[in-house]
């Protein structure tokens, strides 16, 4: 029997790439996590009225949650890098459910601090770092697109869960709403975690996607930087400066936007829909800027998003009527949404994927300090002045400085590549 020439043999290519399953599961997890996080805004006034707490106090619970979540995310990221994403995300799913169920039964401020700012924070700590890290490991080319899709989960969560929580509160009360949401969210997160898998040994995502040639502009040497070296680098310092400012401004808005709208006579359901618009338009921003990062480069994409965010925050100072709230929500959602997928892109771009989940946790921890200050300062200013105007002015200034730091980051990277 005559054998075929070697060059006529065509290797069998798998039609199914499991990396897209990872993208889907990660997107669902992001939707649950960030939908829960941003739904705190619709629980804000019911908690304040039920317990007779001022707004700074209610804001402080959320701010403490951000800081604790960020600190714990370093540990969850480190454990996921070494022992696998599935186990850690199953644990986080359990803690999410437990934290919300217990939050629905609190009677004192210190109890809510434990159940929401600690237990719930542990549950929410793993998703962003773990989901983006495992996605980055499955993809080399089209990584921006994959991460853009995953980050759309944050928009889906705000679009679906936030108004759903508001309606649930209206139909029952804040306590039962916490419990119901906790049971559902915990079940989904634990179930989804079993589908998380690492890329197969000996056959990396780069080999499987070698036919694709997209790349990120201005890329430094393709190396994996150890965790201790990465956190001490000037690159990390500049990244932290950018994202501290981003988190400060965006968390200020996400916690107090509904309060500000209802203070100006807008109904709670319509005010909650503003967060849904942020989420809906944010999906477009994530997809557009995820693809844009592959085509335009991550620096140009960051500068573009920062410019739009600064303009939106300036607009918020003068926002009073419903249509201007809608305009702000659309502009803010697109800008904020576009910047979210850039976080893991910058980490993998500068430091590789070896310690990516742990580095994501570190960046989120430090950035969340800025994020925690935003809501707390907003609440304090309102308690003193009876208005959010000065708080939003500070947010706009932070947005302008964020734009300047984005330009500085690009200039530094270009000079480093030339050197």
List the helices and strands and how they pair.
Elements: H1 19-38, H2 40-51, H3 55-83, H4 85-103, H5 109-124, H6 127-138, H7 143-171, H8 174-193, H9 205-208, H10 227-231, H11 234-263, H12 268-296, H13 298-317, H14 322-339, H15 342-351, H16 356-385, H17 389-418
Helix pairs in contact: 1-6, 1-7, 1-8, 2-3, 2-7, 2-11, 3-4, 3-5, 3-16, 4-5, 4-8, 6-7, 6-16, 7-8, 7-12, 11-12, 11-16, 11-17, 12-13, 12-14, 13-14, 13-17, 16-17
Describe the structure.
The chain is mainly α and 419 residues long. The protein has one domain (18-199, 227-418): Up-down Bundle (Growth Hormone, Chain: A). Helices cover 79% and strands 0% of the residues. It has 17 helices and no strands. Helix 3 runs antiparallel to helix 4. The chain is globular. The chain starts with 18 loop residues before the first helix and ends with a helix.
Key words describing this protein structure:
0% strand, mainly alpha, single chain, disordered N terminus, Growth Hormone, Chain: A, 79% helix
CATH class equals Mainly Alpha
The low-confidence parts are: 1-13, 207-222
Overall geometry:
globular
Please, how many helices?
17
Helices and strands, in N-to-C order?
A: HHHHHHHHHHHHHHHHH
Structural class: mainly alpha
| CATH fold naming | Growth Hormone, Chain: A
Sheet with the most strands?
none
CATH architecture: Up-down Bundle
Helicity level: over 70%
- Provide the CATH superfamily: MFS general substrate transporter like domains
Backbone CA Rg: 22 Å
User: How many domains, as an integer?
Assistant: 1
> In percent, how much strand structure appears in the residues?
under 5%
Task: Count the beta strands.
Answer: 0
- What's the average pLDDT? 83
The end-to-end span amounts to: 61 Å
């Amino acid at each position: 029997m005559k054998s075929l020439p070697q060059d006529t043999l065509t290797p069998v290519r798998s039609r199914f790439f499991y990396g897209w399953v990872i993208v889907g599961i990660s997107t669902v997890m992001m939707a649950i996590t960030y939908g829960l996080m941003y739904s705190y805004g619709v629980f804000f006034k019911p908690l304040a009225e039920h317990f007779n707490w001022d707004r700074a106090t209610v804001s402080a619970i959320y701010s403490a949650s951000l800081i604790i979540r960020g600190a714990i995310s370093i540990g969850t990221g480190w454990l996921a890098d070494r022992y696998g994403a599935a186990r850690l995300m199953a644990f986080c799913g359990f803690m999410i459910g437990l934290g919300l169920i217990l939050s629905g039964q609190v009677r004192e401020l210190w109890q809510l601090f434990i159940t929401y700012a600690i237990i719930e924070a542990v549950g929410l700590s793993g998703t962003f770092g773990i989901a983006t890290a495992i996605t980055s490991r499955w993809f080399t080319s089209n990584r921006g697109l994959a991460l853009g899709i995953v980050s759309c989960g944050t928009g889906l969560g705000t679009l679906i869960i936030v108004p759903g929580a508001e309606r649930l509160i209206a139909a029952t009360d804040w306590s039962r709403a916490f419990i119901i949401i906790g049971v559902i969210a915990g079940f989904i997160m634990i179930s989804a975690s079993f589908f998380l898998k690492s890329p197969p040994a000996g056959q990396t995502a780069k080999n499987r996607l070698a036919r694709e040639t997209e790349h990120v502009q201005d890329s430094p040497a393709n190396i994996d930087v150890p965790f201790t070296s990465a956190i001490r680098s000037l690159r990390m310092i500049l990244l932290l400066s950018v994202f501290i400012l981003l988190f400060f401004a965006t968390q200020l808005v996400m916690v107090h936007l509904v309060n500000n709208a209802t203070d100006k006579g807008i109904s709670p359901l319509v005010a909650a829909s503003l967060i849904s618009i942020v989420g809906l338009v944010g999906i477009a921003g994530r997809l557009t800027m995820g693809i844009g990062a592959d085509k335009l480069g991550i620096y140009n994409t960051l500068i573009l998003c920062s410019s739009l965010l600064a303009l939106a925050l300036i607009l918020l100072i003068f926002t009073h009527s419903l249509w201007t709230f809608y305009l702000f929500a659309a502009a803010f959602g697109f800008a904020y949404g576009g910047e979210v997928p850039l976080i893991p892109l910058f980490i993998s771009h500068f430091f590789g994927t070896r310690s990516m989940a742990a580095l994501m946790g570190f960046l989120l921890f430090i950035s969340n300090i800025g994020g925690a200050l935003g809501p707390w300062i907003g609440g304090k200013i309102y308690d003193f002045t009876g208005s959010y105007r000065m708080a939003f002015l500070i947010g706009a200034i932070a947005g302008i400085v964020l734009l300047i730091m984005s330009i500085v980051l690009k200039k530094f990277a270009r000079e480093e590549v030339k050197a």
